[in-house]
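Dear all,

This email documents one entry for the complex benchmark we are building for the journal club exercise. For each entry we list the sequence lines for every component of the assembly. Then comes the predicted three-dimensional structure of the complex as a token string, followed by one or two observations. Please use this as the template for your own entries, and keep the labels exactly as they appear.
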Amino acid sequence: MKGRFAIPELPEVETVRRELAPWLTGATITQAVRVNAPAGPKYANLELAANTFIQAVNRRGKFLLLPLDTLDAAAAVQSSEQLELVIHLGMTGTVLRAEDNPNYAMKHVRTRLELTTNKAQPSTLLFDDTRRFGRFLVVPAGDYRTLPTLHQMGLEPFDPNLTDKYFKDMLAKSTTAVKTYLLSQKPIAGVGNIYADEALWHARIHPETPSAWVSSAKARKLLAALREVLAKSIEVQGTTLRDYRTVNGEVGQFGNYLNVYGKAEEPCPRCGKLLTRRVIGGRSSHFCASCQQRRRKPPSSVKEA
DNA sequence: CGCATTTCCTGGTAGC
DNA sequence: TGCTACCAGGAAATGC
């Protein structure tokens, strides 16, 4: 494992959301600026956030969504456009409270928000994004045209509308490797590399199985497994690799519950055969070739080419 | 359009 | 020790 990693997937982002909400909900943004990063779509339109207040700290998949309400009634009438601050942590995005980190190295801090909290305290939010894989931008509320992944995102894992049949129907839409398709965020929101590998192992599905070949029974097991690993990880504040810390300096414990991720050449906890690592869809993937058998033929419901 | 591949980006690490 | 080459990853861009 390398770097200051959390690999923020749904549980890690939910952990951050829960930490940010008490601090930011109801706070006024007096200034919002991009610092130490080139202009571009990743950290964009921040000036629009000035003179607004943060209504809520929400999460959609791996994105944090902060609806902003204007403080200027006249402007609200003129624009009639509600705004939203969109934050994606990417690989290395970290949200910091400046007053808690007086000696913080500013080298990779990309944006800064000057705030007045709902307790009338001044506060400064810093967004450190070392590798610049993150996003921190203001958009018209709900307008995700510049964020195609968010735009096409599937239902939240715990959305009651996400039934077994709905999930199976989503998987049926693609013939790409089921692991790759999960990472696209289209069948379900918030699943990244770690939890995809873990859930596929629990459901005994080979990660290279064409998504549409996954049977109804396997789809049901996969959805249950995804919910199980995500819920457990949220409970223990996510997976911490190396020296990552949450906003409040805590360490997620889900690493203790991993069965396959990062465990190539170690014995499968279920059958004892050595686990395999293989690049699938350009991503490092971990599975048990023995108990995650790849089906040889498509199910009868899928037309042969 | 669907799917596969490449790019973005930096710091940690292996190997010499 | 110092240097190079390589690797990690989510989402977007590009290629076919």
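Observations: Residues 1-3, 5, 7-9, 41, 62, 88-92, 131, 133-135, 147-150, 183-185, 192-193, 282-284 of chain A lie near DNA strand C (CB under 10 Å from a C1'). The helical segments of chain A are 10-24, 73-79, 148-151, 164-171, 178-183, 193-202, 216-235.
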